[in-house]
Design a protein that fits this description.
By secondary structure, the chain is of the alpha/beta class. The chain is about 40% helix and about 20% strand. It has a 7-stranded mixed sheet with strand order 1-11-10-9-6-7-8, with helices on both faces. A two-stranded antiparallel sheet has the order 2-5. A two-stranded antiparallel ribbon has the order 3-4. The two termini are about 20 Å apart. GO terms for molecular function: magnesium ion binding; orotate phosphoribosyltransferase activity.
Length: about 230
């Protein structure tokens, strides 16, 4: 399932921060093609958070505040960042929550179920997987399956941005007993972009068409469909 970690106002604030940083890039020409295969007029570069101390601190404080009840409720005892996009976020959160940090490689380095993990699993490990952005959720499910292969319980994944507009993602998470938590979504980012007053007419029209039917937009621009 997909779950909002924060209140709507907090999620809106995270979206405002990303827009203010210039992290939400828009194209009206050559589309972005995500690793998942979807074509989109939007690319969110959350790595820009790394370079702004004040805004980074604000967003991570908001995230930690939202995570504290989840950590207590689920018994989460370690944070695992995705290589390389989730490592920095995982590290900032692990420090705030006083939890061990590990990271999950994209490819194995060695042998056995733990070949993709760097760091030491705690006893009776219950993990929170952390990454930057998700589209249809398939990579987050694959990561959870890999972590479960080590014997660790992995029921929750956290991203900064969940587009939350792509079909079948809810069913996918439910099928694999994984809950996706997000700080913000495309709906919040779109609203923040409109409120910024920085969109020209062509950009506004492109984003409206994408938001109305992201699957059809992807198909028409060379990406995958549902």
């Amino acid at each position: 399932m997909q779950a909002s970690l924060l209140s709507p106002s907090r999620s809106a604030r995270v979206a405002e921060v990303l827009v203010a940083l210039g992290a939400v890039r828009i194209t009206t020409a050559q589309p972005f093609i995500y690793t998942s295969g979807w074509a989109s007029p939007v690319y969110v570069d959350t790595r820009l958070l790394m370079s702004d101390v004040a805004l980074r601190r604000e967003v991570m404080d908001i995230a930690a505040e939202g995570l504290i009840p989840l950590v207590a409720r689920q018994g989460i005892n370690a944070i695992v960042g995705a290589e390389s996009s989730g490592i920095a976020v995982a590290a900032w959160l692990a420090e705030r929550l006083a939890l061990p940090l590990l990271y999950l490689r994209k490819r194995p380095m060695g042998w056995g179920n733990s070949a993709r993990l760097e760091g030491r699993l705690p006893d009776q490990a219950c993990l929170l997987h952390v990454d930057d952005v998700t589209t249809d959720g398939r990579s987050k499910v694959a990561a959870a399956q890999s972590l479960r292969g080590t014997g660790a319980r992995t029921a929750d994944s956290l991203v900064l941005v969940d587009y939350a507009i792509y079909p079948q993602s809810r069913e996918l998470f439910a099928e694999h007993n994984l809950t996706l938590h997000a700080l913000t979504s495309w709906a919040h980012l779109h609203a923040a972009l409109l409120a910024s007053g920085k969109l020209d007419a062509e950009e506004a029209g492109t984003l409206a068409a994408f938001s109305a039917d992201p699957v059809q937009w992807s198909i028409e621009h060379g990406g995958v469909g549902a």
